[in-house]
Every structure is written in structure tokens, then in C-alpha cells.
Amino acid sequence: MDQSVRRLNQLSADLAEAEFLKCCGSRRWAKQMSEARPFASVKEVSSKADEIWSALSGEDWLEAFRAHPQIGGRKAEATQSHQAATWSAQEQSQAQQAADEVKAAIATGNRAYEHKFGFIFIICASGKSADQILASLNGRLPNDPETEIRIAAEEQRKITQLRLNKLLTT
């Protein structure tokens, strides 16, 4: 068994939930992940994370979304741990380095998106340029709300997997 998985298995329920909340802002997801321990492998952690995520309600998804700052922003609506805030900044680093007009277009798109859907634009921004993020934002704006929440949930799932990997390798 991987040392990081062993460490995660040995944490108290409260500490394990706090670790999982760094990866995904849904309290129900974090609690269910903590309750699913012990895990035998990193692969099992990853698989269980996806299984639990897909079974959650839309309200749980929205709670997770609130734990992210807007693309180009620095502060999430919900309280984030220092580690989660650091990871968000790293994931969005390409957007922070964009030209001013691209940043302005993302900010305008963010406002239109949130007005239409009632939650912030969620994208797994890791490795994406600001132009790619803006293209995704503009491409998703015409979606209907039911389609968009599913796309956003899939993006959150990708973010969660990236963060679980970071959690288990640090």
C-alpha cells in the first residue's frame, strides 16, 4: 500500500474530511470519502471519489463550486483552506498572466455566466491558456442550465482528481 494512502487511512474522521475538502468543497463528498476508508490504493481513492461525486445532488455540486474563485479571481465565495487556495492559484496561473483585454473578456464572460446560471464558471484550468479558457467560457454560455450544470460537475470532477493526486503526492 502506498505510504500516502496509509497516512490518509490513519487520520481521524475529522482530519480526513478536512484533507478531502482541500480537493472538493462539497462537505457531503468529503464526509463520504472519509467514511469509505480504508482505501487499498491510490486507484481505489480515485475510483471512489468519482463514484461518490456522481451520486451527489445538484446542491452538493453547487456547494463544491462555491469553494472556487472565479477564473481570474483570487477569493472563493466559500471559505477555502490555505492549501486549496494555493492549488486554485496554481491551476489558474495561465489566466492570471493573460493580456489585459483577455482578462477583461473573461471577467465580462464570468458575470454573464453567473447571471445566466446562478453559479460561477467552473473549468479545469490546469494547463489551459487564458485564450482556451475564454473560448470554453464563450462556448458554454449558450447552454441550457441542465446541460451546463452537468458540464460544470464534470469539470469539478477533473479538478478533484488533480487535487487528490496532489494530496497523495505531497
Strand content: under 5%
Q: What is the helix fraction of residues, given as a range?
A: 55-70%
CATH architecture: Orthogonal Bundle
The counted number of beta strands is 0
Order of helices and strands: HHHHHHHHHH
Task: Give me the Rg, rounded.
Answer: 16 Å
Shape assignment: globular
Name of the CATH homologous superfamily:
Oxo-4-hydroxy-4-carboxy-5-ureidoimidazoline decarboxylase
Residue runs with pLDDT of under 50 for 5 or more positions: none
Structural class by secondary-structure content: mainly alpha
Annotated CATH topology: UraD-like
Q: What is the name of the CATH class?
A: Mainly Alpha
In whole angstroms, the N-to-C terminal distance is: 16 Å
Question: What is the typical, i.e. mean, pLDDT?
Answer: 90
The total of helices stands at: 10
Major sheet description: none
Whole-number count of domains = 1
Please tag this protein with its features.
10 helices; 170 residues; mainly alpha; UraD-like
Structure description:
- The chain has one domain: UraD-like.
- The protein contains ten helices and no strands.
- The two termini are 16 Å apart.
- With 170 residues, it is mostly helical.
